[in-house]
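Lab meeting prep.
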Amino acid sequence: MRALIAAATGLAVALALALTVSALGTPTGETSPKPLLTTVPAHP
């Protein structure tokens, strides 16, 4: 019985957290103008 209560509590907390994050929306900001390095540098 305790496991069922713990699972329900965890689910409720996760749902509340998801709703809170979605209500806040996307953060305002800018992306970096510098490109990310996607290749491995040559080894000597």
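Slide two material, second protein:
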Amino acid sequence: MLDSLVTSKTRIKLLLKFFSHTNSGYLRSLAKEFEESTNSVRVELNRLTEAGLLLSEEDGKTKVYKANQGHPFFQEIKNMVSKFLGLDDLMERIVKRMGDVEKAYIVGDYAKGIDSGTVQMILIGNNLDQEYLDFIRQKTFEKVNRQVEVDILDSDPGDVQGILIFGK
């Protein structure tokens, strides 16, 4: 869906990153995360910043980017990204009913902006309801026609490569 509207794969990855949650990032970490050259990421960051969709601020010698929540199209883009990911309802239900979810990440292809048909997630928390997770996986497949694979971790390893969609 998004790839038919937006022709740059790097731009899609950036939109998914910044508009799926209150994520921020800097050039080198984004290039590494997306497995793209720093130049291609820089070009797209500049375009999105010039369009007013992203804000940048200096953090020492590093320029940090984040979504411009004051942009007139912020909510519309955020909604499109949520629908593309097909996880807006799923995440809300999981967080409310799973127990003590500290963080939730989308990893794998969807985090890279690729619709492979399988959504990979990592949930971080203790005493999470595995039965409910099995139930919601089936419901998600029925609703959005995507397989959901979920790994549950007790604590954050600190090096999860993906899009943080819940938690801080």
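Talking points for slide two:
The mean pLDDT is 82.
Strands lie at 24-26, 54-59, 62-67, 100-107, 118-126, 147-153, 163-166.
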